[in-house]
Amino acid sequence: MASNTHSTIDPAEAAHFGTMAADWWNPKGSSAMLHKLNPVRLAYIRAAIDRHWHGDSHIFRPLEGRRAIDVGCGAGLLAEPLARMGAAVTGLDAAPENIAAAQAHARGQGLTIDYRAVGVESLGEGGFDLVTSMEVIEHVSDPATFVRGLVACLADDGIMILSTPNRTPLSRLAMITIGESIGGIPKGTHDWHKFLTPEELTALLTDAGMVIDDICGLTLDPGKGFTLSDNKAINYLMTARKAG
Fold it and tell me: Is residue 134's pLDDT more than 90?
């Protein structure tokens, strides 16, 4: 790509998450919340895949023969399951430390994943059947440019799945006041003012030529843990495809 490509990577955010790299795969460490979120995310992704491509929910490798990219992949918590679903996976992250940890873990699991420490805007590659970006857009410097970068990666008949915190008083309480004090989320992880409402994210995607297929809330049930629900007050997932 040309050297004047506008990057949406926030260096401070990249440095913050880079410090978590060595501990990323520890389910009781600084990424414990992500480990708890991952099964719910995967259930949502699997349902979206089956719905979009009219797949059989009992097939073990529903992404066989397809290309997937996880943008903001961290150390590979989502990229590895996508690879196990059969996809040829590319993972991007702003922190080189995370990419190094992801590469090492994938090797240990016998998985081949194309990890790159670059921003999505500098990828210079498209045609991905599945584009995912989980809890990332609230950390970038320019959400609109970031969304356009995601759309540029997507194949015409592919799907994009995003998740992000909503900007509500409840999300501030849950994710920052409680989450970053006693909830296990490292201090300084979130800036509530950068959270996007579903309406704001919908507008960004629509402006970039996308159509929204589904929006689902992600809530914390004291008895069950994280669950999918109609309540989008704290966090939500969104599935979109190219218009036309």
Answer: yes
Superfamily of domain 11-242: Vaccinia Virus protein VP39 (3.40.50.150)
Other Cβ atoms less than 10 A from the Cβ of 112: the count is 10
In eight-state DSSP terms, residue 5 is P
Contact between 72 and 93 under an 8 Å Cβ cutoff? The reply is yes
The DSSP line for 36-70 is: HHHHHHHHHHHHHHHHHTT--TT-S-TTTT-EEEE
- Among the listed residues 125, 48, 37, the one whose alpha carbon sits nearest the alpha carbon of residue 77: 37
Amino acid making up residue 5: T
Angle between the N-to-C axes of helices 143-153 and 198-207, in degrees from 0 to 180, rounded to the nearest 10: 50
Distances (CA, A) of 234 to 65, 136, 179, 185, 239: 35, 15, 12, 15, 17
Instruction: Tell me the pLDDT tens digit for each residue of 21-73.
Output: 667 788 877 667 778 889 999 999 999 999 999 989 889 999 999 999 999 99
3-state helix, strand, coil in the chain (%, to 5): 40, 25, 40
pTM for the complete prediction? Answer: 0.88
Cα radius of gyration (the chain): 17
Say how many CA atoms lie within 13 Å of 217 toward its Cβ.
Answer: 11
Candidates 74, 56, 72; CA nearest to 64 is 56
Separation between Cα atoms, residue 38 and residue 32, nearest integer Å: 10
Domain boundaries, the chain: 11-242
Q: Which two tokens stand for residue 185?
A: 């989320």
Q: Binning pLDDT at 50, 70 and 90, where does residue 77 land?
A: very high
